[in-house]
Amino acid sequence: MQRRDFAVVLATALPAALGASPAFAHGRPDDGRLTQRMLESLAGELGDRRTAAALVPHLHDVGFDWRPETASLGRLDFLLAYGFGNRPPAGGGDPAKVLPEPGPVNEDLADTVARIHRRRKVPVYAQWEIARFLKKKHRMTDVISIEPVTAPDGTITYLSTDGVAAQVAEARRHLPGGIGTAGVVGFRDHIKRCVQTTRDRGITAYAPHGFEMPHTYDPQSGQSWTRHRDLYLVHDMAAQWQVLRQKLITHAYPNG
After folding, report:
1. Same domain, 144 and 20
2. How far is it, in rounded angstroms, from Cα 20 to Cα 247?
3. Does residue 188 form part of some domain?
4. How many domains are there within the chain?
5. Are residues 49 and 150 located together in one domain of the fold?
6. Same domain? 83 vs 8
7. pLDDT for position 95
8. What one-character DSSP code corresponds to residue 157?
9. CA 119 to chain CA mean position, Å
10. Residue 1: which of 35, 38, 45 has the closest Cα?
């Protein structure tokens, strides 16, 4: 196939896989047919079926699969909630030294954590934007807030998704029962990467089964890439590709 034909395949299938078509409303797309179409198209474009066969699983995973593996609440030892976006500081000031407002999306995430926690009373590790609502709005006490890092001069370094996972892994590493299994809470389009990142830090992780994650974007978010869906999905896919790139290099050349 020509380049434009492959683009048509992607343009037609990607919105459906992201939930725009009723055909995918009750589960994932027909992977067999979709991946075969992708393979035939990419093999023709590259003139190299072997390389296409190696690439298609990655293209499918990053671009067409947005739902993480789930587990029942009974399997979860703790909850781990990742923030999404924020609002600029209410009183103004230097954003490098003044915490932003958590914003409505993180309030929605906190509400989701609280709903799950009512069903499963386990410790909660939450990025600070979510933890603020859990403590003040929901009066939860078993919440460990994952705070940004503040330098001696007051400069704030905000943690990435991986940074949050690393802190939680370290906090639980030496517990008598070990790290345990995390129930991950995150924004609908972020949660797959949240689960993957948590696992990459050595934590068994799943999304809690049967709970819908928040999915309404905040157009006033202080993080421009979290204001609307099409922009965020590109951002998230770029992050997934970066992680995959490093894994593939390390696997191919473990000794550098």
Report:
1. no
2. 31
3. yes
4. 2
5. no
6. no
7. 82
8. E
9. 23
10. 45
Burial class (CB in 10 A: 0-12, 13-18, 19+), 127: buried
Segments forming the whole domain that contains residue 54: 3-65
Q: Is residue 47 part of a domain?
A: yes
What span, in angstroms and rounded, lies between the C-alpha atoms of 151 and 163?
16
For residue 138, the domain's CATH number is: 3.40.50
> Are 102 and 225 within one domain?
yes
* Confidence band, pLDDT 50/70/90 cuts, at residue 22: very low
Tell me the pTM: 0.87
| Burial of 164 from C-beta contacts in 10 A (0-12 / 13-18 / 19+) | buried
The Cα 16–Cα 18 span in angstroms is 5
Domain boundary among 46, 65, 84: 65
pLDDT at 256: 81
Q: What's the pLDDT at 1?
A: 46
In a domain, 250, yes or no: no
Using an 8 Å Cβ cutoff, are 102 and 218 in contact? no
Structure-block tokens of residue 186: 């995150």
Q: At what angle do helices 49-64 and 3-15 cross, to 10 degrees?
A: 30
- 13-22, 52-61, 172-181, 217-226: which has the minimum mean pLDDT? 13-22
pLDDT tens, position by position, 151-179 = 999 999 999 999 999 999 999 999 999 99
Q: Which two tokens stand for residue 19?
A: 């939930």
